[in-house]
What does this fold into?
Amino acid sequence: VLVLWCLCGFATADAAQLFNLRTEYMPELKGLDIDLPHFSWQYVSGSNRTSAAQAQDHYQVTVADQAGDCIYDSTRIASAALIHPVSKPLSLQSNQRYSWSVEVWSGGEHTMASSWFRSGLLQPTDWRAQWIQGGTLARKAFNMTAEQQSSLSTAIAFVSACQYYELYINGHRIGSQVLDVGMTYFARNRTYATLELATDAFQVGVNSVALMLGQGFCEGHQALFQLELQDSRAGEVTRVITDESWDVAIGPVCNDSTYYGETYLTANEHPGWTLPSFQPTSPLWTQASLVTFPNNTPPSLNAQLFPPI
It folds into this structure.
């Protein structure tokens, strides 16, 4: 058994490897919203592991849409470069998953590897959500039928805040990030996160979306949220968006600062507020109000192309 394990190990070591495939320097990027991205990879030649590594001679990058149709082909390029700047704009559609592959030739070796990325919301009109304010906690309940739940194929959330947020679906925290979204000049531009949610996070009957908001370097607490639920049977998209129908309240974190920490008041706790069964009641809970911007022009939105903290 030991001899066989050793032989397998040598066979693996002698094979050329393509790894660490990235889109815009991010692995399996969610939320690409530029049409001239960079694709990069790392390559190790198998035939020269014990000596100087042999560089690649040629490479070729291709991109395919969800249907498998090729939308970009770099053709075979004679270069040792491990990064490919797209030479012509990709014709991307909003909120779609794309696959991309790179083939590498090095001497007599030929190897290929694949990865994927998801596009963000590419046009301002793709945003149905509106910026809301009025509290440090915000929630929305919505119903889902058994047919909707069983045919749910993808669930993608687009989230922005001024400045920080924590997202909960049916009482479960989504992700572990604590300083998201990133810093920008909030009056002019803001970034949004793209989150792929498990379809079994949603249940038949009442569901809830909840946001806990942090001020960070912003004035006030503002949120923008758009959940897109794709129905595999009807091909329809159901959206849950921030608007004036959301319930808001002041939560226990009544003051927060990146430098000085936060002030937490237990008297402001709302036990179970992230759960579908929670019933917000006045006067503690009120309806959200829409954010008004100078000249009625909200800041531009761009996908966050860097990892959260």
Helices lie at 2-13, 146-150. The first helix runs from residue 2 to 13. The first strand starts at residue 17 and ends at 23. The two ends are 45 Å apart (CA to CA).
